[in-house]
Amino acid sequence: MSIKSDxxxxxxxxxxxxxxxxxxxxDKRLIKEAYKWCDDYEHSLNQTLSYVDEYPLFLDIExxxxxxxxxxxxxxxxxxxxxxxxxxxxxxxxxxxRTIAIAVDGHEWYYHIFFELAGDIIMTEAAxxxxxxxxxxxxxxxxxxxxxxxxxxxxxxxxVRDAIVGWAKGKIQYKHD
Length: 177
Fold this sequence. Notes:
Helix content is 41%, strand content 21%. The chain has three helices and six strands. It has helices spanning 25-35, 72-90, 135-176; strands at residues 17-20, 57-64, 99-105, 108-117, 120-123, 127-131. Helix 1 packs across helix 3. It is elongated, with a radius of gyration of 17 Å.
């Protein structure tokens, strides 16, 4: 996806909601030790240095009111691309993992998958995630969010162990040799 210059007015700093994994004590300790050999701006497991910097984010949600002048897809595309570039910067094998983002426009929920392919950042077309027009539709959203969290606790968590915690162990080992 390319961003037109007149669309940049839609870009804030962060998305409305992000969901991340809570790492165990030992993994956090290893990562903090590896940070000793990194610049300050690199001390984050995601694309922000804010209060969520210790969480590998797996789902981002941007919410806009119906008929708002700002496009939620511009925000999530910018945010997701920043996350992929952060992973690439650290060498965290971002080719092996996908980023999920949801754009909420009024009652309608749409999701996108972001990934790298041959050095490019790819954003899939919007696919309907659900809507909030009735009780059953809201339960559909909850069910799908539950499935995303199950994916995060299995496949994504394994990627975090291999890519991020593995990076920390390698950095520590290299500096001690």
